[in-house]
């Protein structure tokens, strides 16, 4: 092989190595700080949903019987309680409603949403998984006061 070809291969390898390093750095930055939303996308929000009709007496009765608080029973933030609303996002990111200070929690780890018959817990593609009663979940599943939710090293329960 000629020296010129060897030199060109060295530069090509060095270029590919830098592309790989920059790619890895971007993945780490995205995991730590989240994705950047362009200003044009942030301003173009979908129109608000049409106002909903007043809930029926059955819906009001079901809402009264739902648990209202989420309590951390084990972990660094043990004893912390939070009101449950329509949706509660859990993770390490600052845009989550419940921020867990745990190395095993993903940036956006899980979400608790209010369904027709109660609350559902959903894993958001976390690395270490979300466990309901020591079983890993992959689809939204009902979350009742009898259940224990484990996210990282943190245990959570709902209470009335």
TrEMBL record:
Domain of life: Bacteria
Residue ranges of the TM segments: 6-28
Domain FHA, first and last residues per copy: 88-137
Keyword annotations of the record: Membrane, Phosphoprotein, Transmembrane, Transmembrane helix
InterPro entries: Cell_Proc_Reg/RNA_Proc, FHA_dom, SMAD_FHA_dom_sf
Name assigned to this protein: FHA domain-containing protein
A Pfam family it matches: FHA
């Amino acid at each position: 092989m000629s020296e010129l070809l060897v030199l060109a291969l060295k530069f090509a390898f060095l270029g590919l190595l830098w592309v790989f390093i920059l790619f890895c750095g971007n993945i780490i930055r995205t995991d730590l700080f989240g994705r950047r939303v362009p200003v044009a996308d942030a301003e173009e929000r979908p129109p608000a949903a049409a106002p909903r009709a007043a809930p029926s007496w059955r819906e009001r009765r079901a809402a009264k019987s739902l648990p209202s608080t989420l309590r951390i029973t084990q972990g660094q933030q043990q004893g912390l309680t939070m009101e449950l609303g329509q949706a509660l996002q859990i993770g390490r990111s600052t845009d989550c409603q419940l921020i867990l200070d745990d190395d095993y929690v993903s940036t956006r780890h899980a979400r608790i949403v209010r369904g027709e018959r109660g609350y559902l817990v959903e894993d958001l593609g976390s690395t270490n998984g979300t466990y309901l009663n020591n079983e890993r979940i992959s689809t939204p599943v009902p979350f009742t006061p009898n259940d224990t939710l484990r996210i990282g090293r943190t245990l959570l329960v709902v209470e009335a």
